[in-house]
Amino acid sequence: MTVGERQVHYLRAGCGLPVVLLHASPGDHRPLRELVRELAPWFSVYALDTPGHGGSDRLPAAEPAVEDYGAALGETLTALGLERVHLYGTHTGAKIALAFAVEHPERVASLVLDGLGISTPGERADQLANYLPPVLPRGDGTHLVAAWHQVRNMFLFWPWYREEPGARLSAAMPDPEQLHDVTAGLLEAGEAYPLAYRAAFTCDPVPMLARLAVPTLVLASPGDPLHAHLARIPAAGAGVRVEHPPFGAGPAHVAARLRAQATGCSAGVREAPEPPGPLLADRLSRRYVRTRLGQSLIRWIAPAAGARPLAVLPPAPASGRAVERLLARAGSSRPALAVDLPGTGDSELDGPLDVDAGELAGAVVDMLDEAGLDTVDLYGTGAGGAIAAEVARRHPARVHALALAALPDPDRVSAGLVAARTPDLTPDDHGIHLLRAWHLVRDGALRAGQVYDGRALGEPHRRVLDIVKAWPSYGSAFRAAALAALARQPADLRAPVVAADPIWDPFLAATEIIQPSSRRDGRGGVDELLSALDEAGT
Known about the structure:
Blueprint: E1 2-3, E2 6-7, E3 10-14, E4 18-22, H1 33-39, E5 44-48, H2 66-79, E6 85-90, H3 92-103, E7 108-114, H4 121-130, H5 142-154, H6 176-189, H7 193-201, H8 205-211, E8 216-219, E9 240-243, H9 251-262, E10 285-291, E11 294-301, E12 310-313, H10 324-330, E13 336-339, H11 357-370, E14 376-381, H12 383-394, E15 399-405, E16 407-408, H13 415-421, H14 432-447, H15 458-469, H16 476-485, E17 497-499, E18 513-514, H17 526-536
Parallel strand pairs: 4-5, 4-6, 6-7, 7-8, 8-9, 12-13, 12-14, 14-15, 15-17
Antiparallel strand pairs: 1-2, 3-5, 10-11, 11-13, 16-18
């Protein structure tokens, strides 16, 4: 959803009165999914990504305060059509929720604060000095393991960097998938992840609690590092209750307490409206569309007027982030969109992971339908090129001209090679799967003739994030393209074919690709590509 000049990413489930959930730092909404599932039978539940986290853009302020995040929350609720809500926040999210409720009590029917940090000045100074090491990519990939260790220690010690007996927590270690979700959120936020933390660490909630005029429940489970801070809450007014949940209390208990808190506090709360439609503009934005394989993310630019749309399929398992430069340049003169193929990047893959190229092609057509696009110029490279060719074969009326680059060579891409390029990346207790993902991409860069020094690791780091975010299904599109669609050559296509510039693809080396033969040469830059596509259909 677009809110002013920034985009906000959120998860929605259920129906009824609105409940809004705000996550802890350093992740995004994903650790709240179980709580969402518990609440969805009774409410319309919104789990928002904090600005600068997950899919939400950063705030414009260089060092935003918790009040800035609270104001941004108000803008988001307005854009969602939510005038008055039940509000829940945990850790950093608790302080943002508190700041908003203090300034706008008329918009908060009830409030639940789960883990409210109340630090001394000395503790704040120590946290600000040590809690927030930067995420700096390293050639050996150990920055990923450092991030994993940091997140793992958050559940073992308080604060996480003080590894000593007195700082040991009593909670059980979360399962590897939960640790992975938080770590992936930290890595995705990158240099922005300290911002919300700093806002929370520098915020003293005690004066806010004194001003609070909203029915409020404050709690923290015994395993929460902020459970001890419940004793620091000053004598609460009639509207603020403090609870100590039983040891091991999880999302089901929190959901039950939130439901109880909301009971009798819903005056003026209206049922949640339908989600707002996408706001398309002449700048890069993101939106989700429904396909037969689940919701898929597209990156989209829609100038007020322009030529035939261009649809771009990146070299799977890369997301549309890999082709944003091409998208931005093409989008200056025509509508342009880039697709996260189902199972890659931020796109879902519902059902079995052994999807075939025909199903992926159908999902691409579903995306075009959802975006209101009829006939497009279609560009694909690597595995994305194989899927683009399959779209042109099965749905020729939808493709005016086809631009292909660096297709997998069926004579050199074997089942064994494909299996080796798509190893199991199931999270493990010690984060070794992250190293496996890093070296998978790094080795691909070396095969492609690219060597990165410490100053140019941003692109491989982003490719690794694309993979680890979608670890259960990241290899599905690549396998489908390489093993099913590539036995057929571009010569059997009815759509005009343009030879295009490839996008760097660590999953295919130069010896494993073929360049489609075509008299239409669109290589040499985006302008040449667009010109060749226009000429190809005449």
